[in-house]
Amino acid sequence: MKNPTLPAFSLLFLLVFQTAYAENQSQSSKRAYDWLQKIADAPRQLNYQGTFVYYADGHIETSQITHRVDRDDEYEKIEVLDGMSRIVFRYNDEMKCYIPNTKKIYTEKRWYRKFFPDLLPQLTARIQENYKIEIDRQERIAGHDAQLIKLIPNDNLRYGHEFWIDIDSGLLLKAVVVNKEDIIEQFAFAQLEIGGKVDENLLNPELMSAQNWEKVDLTTLVLDEGELKWQLRELPAGFIKIAEMKRKLVGKSTMVDHIVLSDDLASVSVFIEPIQADVSSTVPGFYSSRGAINIYVRELMNSKITTVGEVPLNTIKLIGDAIFVRQ
Predict the structure, then answer these.
(1) Residues 62-77: pLDDT tens digits?
(2) Residue 53: exposure state from Cβ atoms within 10 A (0-12, 13-18, ≥19)
């Protein structure tokens, strides 16, 4: 004789199992997102000093970073140790870049945070719509215990990312950009001290020996949404426009129109400038890449449109081709 209660019992068991599984998945996702929140907060709340290495396409660049927090104020110095000397001082969002070879000082107001180890400037829960976030293994990075978090893209419009996070402080220790299984870009601390007192003199640009250097102000004029005549017909899934502005860029005689997009992790910039009348040939469309950065250039209405960002080339082209002039 068949047991008439078995189907009902099996269904009940299945429902309980599915509910428990969903709850576990939700809790795991929240824990992973909490780690990302630590990455976003820690660089702005801690004193730290260290040396980090950037790697892409066989190119290696080493930099020293010193960061100090005084109540609500941040002070930072980054000195590039390889190749052409560059020293960047930052007080909150005010930046000064010293180029000893040319004896120039570039000043600029930083409108968008994104410098290692501060790689999540505008983290929101929306990031979970674009990436699957997984908690992976623990490792040692630069003498610190680290938790590995993986961000796996939900489509082919963006790269994957792997973050190694200091377990004690939440500071990002290592960041890798991957295209499927291939590493295409990496930042990693080789030596790092977190906490403690930081000498104020290390972060004072006035102590730089820079008499008779040329000062260049790279002005940024942030505009209201839709104020530029250049707009985008349609954005790739998961991206939103976060800024429109006019900017003075190095080597440019006039202000350049600038549109910025983001998916909460990757960012894309579109620069629009008039083609100079004295240029003998028009600008051909071309592609270029280095590490995770891809570039696409095209012409439209006697203007050069340069789209650049840390996303795959197909995404860069989608965005660049979506630019139009609002009538």
Answers:
(1) 999 999 999 889 999 9
(2) middle
Query: In this predicted model, what pLDDT tens digit does every residue of 281-301 receive, in sequence order?
Result: 445 677 788 899 999 999 998
Phi-psi region of 266 (alpha: psi -120 to 50; beta: other; left: phi over 0): beta
Nearest to 164 by CA among 195, 130, 189, 201: 189
Closest to 111 measured CA to CA, from 264, 316, 258: 258
Which segments within 154-208 are labelled E, that is strand? 160-166, 172-179, 182-194
Complete domains list, the chain, with CATH: 40-207 (2.50.20.10), 219-325 (3.30.200.100)
The pTM of the full predicted model, rounded to 2 decimals, is 0.87
Beta bridge partners of 27: none
Joined tokens for residue 268: 């894309």
Which of 290, 319, 323 lies closest to 304, judged by CA?
323
Quick count: other Cβ atoms within 10 Å of Cβ 87? Answer: 19
Residue 139 φ/ψ, nearest 5 degrees: -140, 180
